[in-house]
Fold this protein.
Amino acid sequence: MKEILEAPWMAEMIRTATNMYDHGWDERNGGNISLLLEEAQVTEYLGPNGCVREIPTGFSCPELAGRCFLVTGTGKYFKNVRYAPEVNLGVVRLVDGGKSVQLLWGFADGGRFTSEFPAHMMSHAARLRVDPGNRVVMHCHPTNLLAMTYVHSLDGREFTRTLWRMGTECAVVFPDGVNVLPWMLCGTNEIGEATAKQMETARLVVWAQHGVYGAGKCLDETFGLIETAEKAAEIYMKIAHLPRVNTITDEHIRRLAGHFGVRLREGYLHQ
């Protein structure tokens, strides 16, 4: 059996967590990632029947029963993932209709999955319904997106239009726009359900005064999605107080969408 720390998906998870910390998105124990794995990816490194222990999830998600995930742990610091992946990460399989998981590897200090596990699993289920290729849910605290929620309308359409105007590539990278939730108590099933609902129509969901959730087909794509939105928010926070001399117009955005073959969120541009 192959060494799990040599698995390509493990190396990519460690690299992504490190990059997120280095970007300043995941202070202390902030942020979490979950990566959906195929059964064959798991058995290649762990065998078909291993179970270290079972952990209750506190929610139900029958759509994902039997599915396996590589997930970051609760209370864990992203800066430490590269040094002790077996402590800070875990491979789990959802069982009993999603009401509990089998820990297959990791959390070697007796830990468990992230406190945002319900939001992750509900978001995975929501994205898989609209995009069967979705594999990643990523949560972090990018400084400028977070700051923007203090000074900008939280209306999703207006939030999206502002970000689209901050960089030429933005409408191409996230043509589905950004959905925004008002402040809610984190780590609860309620915020998980609300996030999953928003994930049905957009891969980016901003949690006001908290952070952002992103989803995608792979870790690189999801990282890049958040990175692009964060750069747009940074530009906005630098110029919001200044008189606007030039801008990206709705016509510019339409031309971009046509040239790159992306479908913009309906109704988000003026007619």
Notes: The longest strand covers residues 89-95.
